[in-house]
Amino acid sequence: MRQIFQVSIKLILKVIKIPRSTYYYTRNHEGRKFNDDQVIQAIDEIRQQDLKYTKKYGYRRITSALHDLRFQINHKRVLRIMQEHAWICHAFNRQTRKYNSYKGLVGMIAPNRLKRRFKTDRPYQKLVADVSEFRYGSMGTNERVYLEPVLDLFSGEILAFNISEHPTVEFAIKPLKEALEGLPALNYRTTVHTDQGFQYQHRQWRTLLKEHHAFQSMSRKATCLDNAVMESFFHIMKAEMMDEHFEDKTSLIQAMKDWIDFYNNRRIKTKLNGKPPVKYRELAVQKAA
Description:
This is Integrase catalytic domain-containing protein. The chain is an alpha/beta fold.
């Protein structure tokens, strides 16, 4: 009579080198079939909403959009489906050339009041600004335009922006003035943070901030992480918008304006509970009222 030995599952899994979690997951879901058809259709529709931009959504943003559509789905499943359909966007892996507006000490350097504290629980308390260049025309040419947006750290909303062929002091001041004059009455002071670009050291920039009782803050020299949110914004914009070549200035500027409108009003952000910046700010104001 053959003797039967009982061996524990723990020992078997150790011998065959399979994690316990994998074993129990497989056992508990044995025979379960995932019907991905509805999810695939929903993802495809999400990617078609703003065809030029939403096709670049990553799996986390797609997951947030699916949650808004009442799908109870895990981001890992979304990632698997997107990989199977070659819907993963690699545009954000590109490195872009950064415009440097630092010209040495040409005015006054303000202290770093922000100190990388990018979070705030109230709109218009912390604003950031920076300048970046966008190129157009035939390869090898130096044709370019410059963009300066003013971004609210509460929601990531672009409050104002300016586009020009020349990154002058007047060019930089225009969106700042528009943003500050558009602020509602606040019971706290606004801080405006920038790098040490020559435009931001200028007397006119400082005077405008004083007129609106706003604090001035500056990054430390050659420390781009001190204004990381603005750097991230430019990276996202160029990855999603500059995947096509623009032959002339007019078409490039129009594409920039179109994308900023999309970003403010329709581009969902996982950090904002799946809402675009303007919608998130409006809901927050309604809740506080």
